[in-house]
Amino acid sequence: MRIFMSGGCKNGKSYYAQHLAKAQQQAGALYYVATMQSADSEDDGRIIRHRQERDGWGFITVEQPNNIEELLDKCDCGGSFLLDSVTALLANEMFAPPDYAVDENAAVKIADGLLKVIRSVENIVIVSDYIYSDAALYDELTEKYRAALAEIDRAAAKACDVVLEAAYTNVIVHKGGEMFGELYAQIG
């Protein structure tokens, strides 16, 4: 099953996504596709927390901070995947070192690569952050980032069997409820 999960920051979606990926695992490997590149001590802390949360679960961590389709050359497509997160992947591609110039084509590149991954694997949970409901006005660069993330999220949601939203530790099913029911029963 291909699952897209979005939600606000720090609401448990990564932890819930780990349960989903584990529940989907059959005989193949269980992959955690890490996209975050640490920029500061807060990022370091989040990475450590995520590693601790999945310790003992059997995840094989695959660092893939950009060029997401290259994941297919590193892993058995028959495994179960957790890709966390599209949000970090976009930041890495849109503002790539060394000059951190804005790549206006990052959304198209990532969406194309992500669709290749989605079509090539049977079981994947894709995590993204929902950053669209703020009433605040942002600068032009932030709005470009938000628009690019929305473009990628729409493409992934359309290609996935199930679309979930995590809101205040509740999970709302927006697509594929009939498919998701059995998996949901496994993880409660």
Description:
There is one protein chain. α2 links the parallel β2 (30-34) and β3. This protein is 45% helix and 21% strand. The protein is α/β, with parallel strands linked by helices and 188 residues long. The chain is globular, with a radius of gyration of 16 Å. It has one domain: Rossmann fold, CATH 3.40.50. α4 packs across α6 (140-159).
Give the SSE layout.
Elements: E1 2-7, H1 13-24, E2 30-34, H2 41-54, E3 59-63, H3 71-74, E4 80-84, H4 86-94, H5 106-120, E5 123-129, H6 140-159, E6 162-167, E7 170-175, H7 177-187
Parallel strand pairs: 1-5, 1-6, 2-3, 2-4, 4-5
Antiparallel strand pairs: 6-7
Helix pairs in contact: 1-7, 4-6, 5-6
Estimate nothing, just give the exact number of structural domains: 1
Mean pLDDT score? 91
What is the CATH superfamily label?
A: P-loop containing nucleotide triphosphate hydrolases
Question: What would CATH call the architecture?
Answer: 3-Layer(aba) Sandwich
Task: List how many beta strands DSSP finds.
Answer: 7
* SSE order, one letter for each helix or strand: EHEHEHEHHEHEEH
Measured distance between first and last alpha carbons: 17 Å
Helix content: 40-55%
Low-pLDDT segments: none
CATH topology: Rossmann fold
Rg, please?
A: 16 Å
Largest sheet: 7 strands, mixed
- Give the strand content: 15-25%
Q: Structural class, from helix and strand content?
A: alpha/beta
Please list the strands of the largest sheet in the order they lie side by side: 3-2-4-5-1-6-7
3D shape: globular
Q: Please write the CATH class name.
A: Alpha Beta
- The number of distinct helices, counting runs of at least 4 residues, comes to 7
